[in-house]
Amino acid sequence: MMKKILCLMLLAAPVFGQAVTERDFRKYFDARQVTGSFLLLDLKKNQYTAYDAARCRKGFLPASTFKIPNTLIAFETGIIRDTSYVFHWEGKKWPVEAWNRDMSLPQAIAVSCVPCFQQIARKVGAYRYQTLLGRMQYGHFQVPVDSVEWFWLQGGARISQFEQVDFLKRFYLNQLPVNTRSAQVTKALLLLGQGNGWKLRGKTGWASPTLTGAEGWGDDPNDYGWFVGWIEQGGDVYVFATQVEAKRPVPDSFGAARRAITEAILREEFGLMK
């Protein structure tokens, strides 16, 4: 019990108007050979809990967590009208074999298909992205015309865990400037699992020059991973963002670590998803 008490600390600086409870979840990251940080917002209590709150304020490339606003934008602009939309493989061989075929929108989200969402990006264009992301108050982005297919995976686009959680909170509460149908369909596409009285929605992300090439990475030796989303359980909603990093070559556990760390913390420290 004393150990639990000692690892709790209220930060003096409020974030978004609330104090943040700091807890030590390092063991979950160490077990997966990564470093990182974790943030949770209990929506009913309007209470933040963080592991390494300072890092939770740091901006990172959004990687494929950007598929959440990207899907909303695709619906809002009429590029995609419903979930029967099919992305046609353009013939380029990608390192992820699952991307090398035609697939529907739900399939593209499930396998985090980068070339599928690059097709959307070319149709949206830099100007509309800049405008719509500004309206959504999503991260800190300058969308270059010459890298509209890559800006969420390399370059200067940044979003912090606090910003991810704030965006997802507004998304869940239907407070984004998008129509109700766009929000409802996108939320349905993010369902990852459900059990006895709970539902998990979310999206992973992985930023690495192994996929994009070295341009825009400089001498950064790390890959970066995300898992963001929310849990609906017991009449409450818990919005989370986990961010991890590891030096290249990353451990084999890196891909699985994003969800595994998050779900272990949620179950063992908060009693969720049981």
TrEMBL record:
Which Gene Ontology biological process is one annotated for this entry? response to antibiotic
Signal peptide location: 1-19
- Any one Pfam family match given in the protein's UniProt record, by short name: Transpeptidase
The Enzyme Commission number assigned here is 3.5.2.6
- Keywords assigned: Antibiotic resistance, Hydrolase, Signal
PROSITE patterns recorded: BETA_LACTAMASE_D (PS00337)
Entry annotated with the keyword Signal? yes
Any one Gene Ontology molecular-function term assigned to this protein's record: beta-lactamase activity
**The reaction(s) this protein catalyses:** a beta-lactam + H2O = a substituted beta-amino acid
Which Gene3D superfamilies does the annotation name? Answer: DD-peptidase/beta-lactamase superfamily
Which GO cellular component does the record give, naming just one? plasma membrane
Domain Penicillin-binding protein transpeptidase span(s) in chain numbering: 45-266
Q: Which InterPro entries match?
A: Beta-lactam/transpept (IPR050515), Beta-lactam/transpept-like (IPR012338), Beta-lactam_class-D_AS (IPR002137), PCN-bd_Tpept (IPR001460)
The active site of this protein is located at: 64 (acyl-ester intermediate)
The N6-carboxylysine modification is found at: 67
Family the UniProt entry places it in: Belongs to the class-D beta-lactamase family.
Q: This chain belongs to which protein, by name?
A: Beta-lactamase
